[in-house]
Amino acid sequence: MRTADGRQIVVAADAEALARLAAQRLIARIELHRERPAICLTGGSGPQRMFELLATEFADRIPWPRVHWFISDERFVPLDHPLSNMGTIKRVLLDGRAPPENVHAIPAGDSPTPDEAARRYEHELQSFYGAVTLDPARPLFDLVLGGVGPDGHTASLFPGWPQLGIRDHWAAGVDDAHVEPLVPRVTLTFPALASCAELLFLVHGASKRDIVGRVFAGDDLPAGHARSIGETVWLITADALPETLRDR
């Protein structure tokens, strides 16, 4: 189904079906970019089963030497810390498959502040992109994975926080987070998240039903404001789908 504002909603029967559909969409985006695909991953529980499938059943469908892997946000901890988003993804998916030079982690462990880590990551993104200004005709990423937190945040863009208004930078430091774990973060900003052929939200579980309903009711929530210059797709399990969306 497609909403009036152009967002697409795809309903999966359960979490396993969601993981498989997400893996297939990611691979399809890679196949559309024959030279140097760029995939921006996310942490949290939403994509974990998808990562497992990509590392096993679907591993031979990924041209590992060509694909570059990025991250939408990171906890301000070293890469080998248990809380590191990219550290976890490396262990589950990327280590032993992706060339190390193709894995673009946010330099949280060796930066003095989240702002400095954000500045360094922005520079890395710009070097990869080949420009310091994003061109709507040339997306930075082929696919960006997203999720929605219980407060409506996505990446580490939290409701009411100043990072929501940043338009002149691709990444920003977040000194405090108001959801667990309570550690500083580094996040991509809305302009960087939008610069993709597809922004794919993964949402599963009945506990997400209320916040998904609020997002699509138009509440002022970061996840609702995150849009792609290409396709914005919400992949939602049946138990997370609000009643207001069931008849569309």
Overview of the structural elements:
There is one protein chain. The protein has a single domain, classed as Rossmann fold, CATH 3.40.50. It is 30% helix and 18% strand. The strands form two sheets. A six-stranded parallel sheet has the order 1-9-8-5-2-3. A three-stranded antiparallel sheet has the order 4-7-6. Helix 1 crosses helix 2.
Q: Which CATH-level-2 architecture?
A: 3-Layer(aba) Sandwich
Helix content: 25-40%
Radius of gyration: 17 Å
Largest sheet: 6 strands, parallel
Shape: globular
The total strand number stands at 9
CATH fold title? Rossmann fold
Structural class: alpha/beta
- Overall pLDDT confidence: 95
Q: Can you tag this structure with a few keywords?
A:
six-stranded parallel beta sheet; 30% helix; alpha/beta; Rossmann fold; 8 helices; 18% strand; three-stranded antiparallel beta sheet; 248 residues
